[in-house]
Amino acid sequence: MKTAHFILVFCLLALASPFAYASDPSPLQDFCVAINDPKDAVFVNGKFCKDPKLAKAQDFYYSGLNIPRNTSNPVGSTVTPVNVAQIPGLNTLGISLVRIDYAPNGGLNPPHTHPRATEILVVVEGTLYVGFVTSNTDNRLITKVLYPGDVFVFPIGLIHFQFNVGKTNAVAFAALSSQNPGVITVANAVFGSNPPSNTDVLVKAFQLDKNVHTFRACTSIMMKRLQLFVAAFAILAFSSLLASASDPSPLQDFCVAVNDTKNGVFVNGKFCKDPKLANAEDFFYSGLNIPRNTSNPVGSTVTPVNVAQIPGLNTLGISLVRIDYAPYGGLNPPHTHPRATEILVVLEGTLYVGFVTSNTDNRLITKVLNPGDVFVFPVGLIHFQFNIGNTKAVAFAGLSSQNPGVITIANAVFGPNPPINPDVLTKAFQLDKNIVTYLQSKFWSDNN
Ligand SMILES: *[C@@H]1O[C@H](CO)[C@@H](O)[C@H](O)[C@H]1NC(C)=O
Ligand SMILES: *[C@@H]1O[C@H](CO)[C@@H](O)[C@H](O)[C@H]1NC(C)=O
Ligand SMILES: *[C@@H]1O[C@H](CO)[C@@H](O)[C@H](O)[C@H]1NC(C)=O
User: Fold this and answer.
1) pTM, whole model, 2 decimals?
2) Which residues line ligand 2 (CB under 6 A)?
3) Where on this chain does Mn(2+) bind (predicted)?
């Protein structure tokens, strides 16, 4: 009966889809925890969904992202993905996370694309030289040197790389705007495919002498060295490998937000800067390494990095936050992001976190998180994080919108201007009217 009820609700939601799709893409349900077996399940977005009543905190959870990975491999870097394959609860939610470890003196995350995702990366340790190449016919290389706390954006589908130019290990976390972003490592896809690409095709595409086709065998060695790397990169920049998928697309490389209409085009509520005038600063933010002051009534501070801080995020559907929590009870109070799913990784401390499913279940799903643990808060659902440790806590979180929005429940209900009629709140919360007027008289501060 429960399954039948779910299917009924699902059918109603499916019928409502033409209206729901008016704005951002929506999963049309709280979540769809991926399972392999169609028993008791509904088929959505390429995966079967688990019956929502059977979903548990474990479905939204991953641990171990605090562990440094072994970078002894030909390129000197290791990517640890946390997507729908690791967290089945990410299915349909349009976001994922990676940790990237880079060896000292030249660890390279080689030129690659994510066909279905924009990436927003924050450096935690080390010094990275990063860049991406715009599509044809410009093929402009936009680069930047990043230090801890720096944030950089790689627009969807564009070829990009990170290179450790420091003498120490480097570590970065990055959020990607798909639960299954895909990776195409350019050198491997071009020179290492199975079966191999026709040599004549490669000779013509890369305008190489046919004798140089042994180039293929040398690719992995070559990629270790900076000078040759730059040469290879310049060649690759001229190839057009950009995949466009069926996901919502910005329909251009990027649309750097500007305030004024001069030389601009109106897209998604913002004007775009002329792409030829875009530079690395448009995709960059610094300072996310700095602990924030949490001396406020809730004991937490959210530092957002969205389209307001990085104009290059406009239309790209992703953003990042740092959250600092005071020891002994720092709280990121119950709130929703109307336009984004959130994927959070704990760097320091111990957090008790949770979210509540929508009516009529209103089920609370909670988990205690330690460093390296990852948890997902599905789009639009009320959620919170609470520091239950005796030290401060720090987390980074990716959000699947360049402008996710925040609705802090207590502030929206008891603190709006002008206030909501107390009779409405008295009835809605079944409270004594004196309590409602007391709550309405309080000052509700934001932590973001
Ligand atoms: C890292 O991997 C290499 C090659 O697989 C191995 O020889 C080495 O012992 C590993 N190092 C650590 C610290 O595990
Ligand atoms: C847009 O205008 C606001 C307010 O005048 C200003 O603070 C902001 O820096 C401007 N943004 C850009 C990208 O020019
Ligand atoms: C943090 O903010 C509080 C209140 O605004 C202030 O009194 C305190 O000095 C600040 N602490 C630091 C370390 O800046």
Assistant:
1) 0.80
2) 257-259, 311
3) 335, 337, 342, 383
